[in-house]
């Protein structure tokens, strides 16, 4: 399955004025939950996992976080996205003692554990494209972000 199929405009928040990682988790969880993608247990499971296995990624220009959790908390697969008005602190995936100022959050909800690795690999390929991240940051709505991602994955 292509990664672009997991993005839905109702799961995208642009230019979000968050002050903390929890703000981002709460707003993306609300979108996932209200649209029937995750169970109520998803939010606490993501927060708990993030403390043990942080997902902040230090990249070239824009930094990214990829929070996710176990499939048992997911109803159907999706990726929720938040572009942040101001960067929010996450812990670095490679060095949990280091902070990363994150600009874009891709919150992954997958209901099969074997698909998680494949999805992460596809997402890592996408976020290594600085021009794509620039386009995503510059978009003012979910439709534009989905179009940009589709163009990169054709």
From TrEMBL:
Residues 5-152 form the PTS EIIA type-2 domain. SUPFAM superfamilies: Phoshotransferase/anion transport protein. CDD domains: PTS_IIA_fru (cd00211). This is Putative PTS IIA-like nitrogen-regulatory protein PtsN. Pfam families: PTS_EIIA_2.
